[in-house]
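Any chance you could type out a protein's amino acid sequence plus the matching backbone structure tokens because I've never seen that pairing?

——
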Amino acid sequence: MNRSEYRPLTWVLKIALVVVALTMLVSCLSAADLTSYLATIPVTKVNFGVITDGVYAGSYTVALPPGANASHRSVSVRVNIGSGRAQAIEIVDPATFNTNAKWRTLINRVIGAQSLQVDAITGASVSSKAFFKAVENAISPHS
């Protein structure tokens, strides 16, 4: 191939790079917008110590803004309260979260801190928010 035959290929590569760069930029902006949006959904401080022993169910679905998407925006939980403490939290739906190490770590953080004010799972902001709100919804009518 001579030099003139490479020119169309060069332009195709340049256009492809621009498209990829723009796609990445839009993704970053969308993620920032979603993070800002999620910050507007408050998770209240809970006092597990005032809740009667028992098992409480709760769920929450994050209403996403237009154009946003998430693989899991709904979470359902069962919270076991005993001796004034959150003893166990089971994610009922999506059930696959129970066997995922990241979600087990999040549950252990909540139980260890006896608080919903713990770090969310990186890369799972929407699902984490739904989890926190589901736990809140499970116990708030009883506190």
The two ends are 77 Å apart (CA to CA). Confidence is low (pLDDT under 50) at residues 24-29. The helical segments are 3-39, 101-113, 125-139. The beta strands are 54-61, 74-82, 85-93.
